[in-house]
Design goal:
The chain is of the alpha/beta class. Helices cover 35% and strands 20% of the residues. Strands 7-8-6-9-10-11-12-13-14 form a 9-stranded mixed beta sheet, with helices on both faces. Strands 15-16-20-17-18-19 form a 6-stranded mixed beta sheet, with helices on both faces.
Length: 456
């Protein structure tokens, strides 16, 4: 366990991760400087606890020994660049949490990837609990990893969701077993390139067991280059030795047994969709790596309750299903849900963050019965639809106010026919119009439920 007593540590960011870091450092007798863009009530609370507010300087204040940064601060921020230039170590929240661990700390089973992280760690948590373990899903899923490590409760094992932002600043984190679910262009504005993004993800495999998606070429290549002692992959096809996969409608383990071992029927995996079967295989692989038996894997997956806004059924009305996948905040995630349904009226748009949509639209065009577009980058999706699905009716919702989702839902209802699915799978982030993907999904569900009876 690292000793922070008497050291001066600057914490960049007063959000959830930053606040957890400040509290943990103060409890360990460190002098804490807090940098943030505004002196909010959250900042005032931390100052009252003993932190010193320094606003958001571009250069490192004198006397700082170490920086702990939050995911919202990009690597090219002048303050972080100045710290590195002065030879000061910059830790992310996850690296900081790792160094807080004691010698008898709970092992980490970690998950990263472009999409599916939260669903997978929740599945893993459910499996571990079915095995009788005191387990908790942490990271970006409610409880910060710092709080889980620094708190008084001693868990048996932690299921840890790790983002590329967190992994970028992690230099010694080595989970007992770790999985990379998939990789597609995302957060390139933060990382600078796809290569840097992928490299950050691959650092999750510093530990003894590396798990990767054999159906994803980039992940497969990264796994081959990993130095992990044990490499396990998962596939939606028939598993070879060293893999988990699908055979005759069953999830099968052929990695941790000499002969293929059936785990659970595909039909028991929720939410539906091939991508969630892949998530379940990844969760099962991590649990099996930790010694969990097959029955607990089956029991845990059957008991799993999906989080909201992830391919979530809202209602069926006049033969039309309404589904909320607002968590599909990039094209790769949107593809997963769009390919689940044969006939779709697609509600999409928001902040693409530079992610390309051409390939997605070309692939899912045959499934589309119509599209309703909203948000700041909707024209990029509209242009792709004109090129790849010119016959599909497209409705543009130009409004950026609170009524935009109501207008979008009503337009989608006019396009839909019995047997269709109206799917909110935006392929883009939500902050141009909403406080987050959850608010966007809630607005969609509320508007769908409130449709007047005279709308088809």
């Amino acid at each position: 366990m690292a000793d922070f007593a008497g050291r001066t540590v600057l914490v960049a960011g007063a959000g959830l991760a930053g606040a957890s870091a400040v509290r943990a450092l103060l409890a360990r007798d460190a002098r804490v400087l807090l940098a943030d863009r505004a002196q909010s009530p959250a900042v005032d609370e931390l100052v009252a606890a003993g932190a010193e507010f320094v606003a958001a300087p571009d250069v490192l204040p004198d006397g700082v020994d170490l920086v702990v940064t939050s995911p919202g601060w990009r690597p090219d921020h002048p303050l972080l660049r100045d710290a590195l230039a002065r030879g000061r170590e910059v830790l992310g929240e996850v690296e900081f949490a790792w160094r807080l661990r004691g010698t008898d700390a709970a092992p980490w089973l970690a998950v990263t990837g472009t999409n599916g992280k939260t669903t997978t760690v929740r599945m893993l948590e459910s499996i571990l609990r079915a095995a009788g373990l005191d387990a908790l899903a942490v990271g970006n899923v409610g409880v910060s990893v710092i709080d889980a490590v620094a708190g008084a409760h001693a868990y048996d094992v932690l299921a840890v969701e790790l983002s590329s932002f967190q992994l970028h600043w992690s230099s010694t984190v080595a989970p007992a077993a770790a999985a990379v679910l998939n990789l597609a262009p995302d957060h390139l504005d933060w990382h600078g390139s796809m290569a840097s993004y992928a490299a950050a993800k691959a650092t999750i495999w510093r530990g003894p067991v590396a798990v990767g998606n054999a159906d994803d070429q980039t992940v497969r290549e990264l796994l081959a280059d990993s130095s992990a002692a044990t490499k396990v992959s998962f596939t939606l096809g028939e598993p070879r030795p060293g893999q988990l996969g699908v055979r005759a409608g069953q999830l099968v383990d052929h990695a941790f047994t000499d002969a293929p071992l059936e785990l659970v029927p595909v039909s028991d995996v929720r939410p539906p969709g091939a991508h969630n079967v892949a998530n379940a295989l990844a969760a099962a692989a991590l649990a099996r790596a930790h010694g969990v038996d097959a029955q607990a894997v089956a029991d845990g997956l059957r008991a799993f309750v999906p989080d909201p806004h992830r391919n979530q059924f809202v209602l069926e009305r006049a033969g039309v299903r309404w589904v909320d996948d607002s968590k599909a905040t990039n094209p790769h995630a949107a593809r997963a849900s769009l390919t689940t349904y044969p006939d779709v009226v697609w509600i999409a748009g928001g902040q693409l963050k530079g992610a390309p949509v051409e390939e997605l639209v070309a692939e899912i065009a045959p499934r589309l019965r119509g599209a309703v577009l909203l948000g700041v980058d909707r024209r990029h999706i509209a242009d792709a639809l004109r090129r790849h699905a010119p016959e599909i009716p497209v409705i543009d919702v130009a409004s950026g106010d609170d009524g935009a989702m109501i207008e979008a839902v009503r337009a989608a209802a006019e396009l839909a026919r019995p047997g269709d699915t109206v799917l909110l799978a935006p392929a883009a982030a939500s902050y141009d119009m909403f406080s987050g993907y959850a608010a966007r999904g809630d607005a969609f569900a509320a508007a769908a439920r409130a449709l007047p009876e005279d709308v088809r």
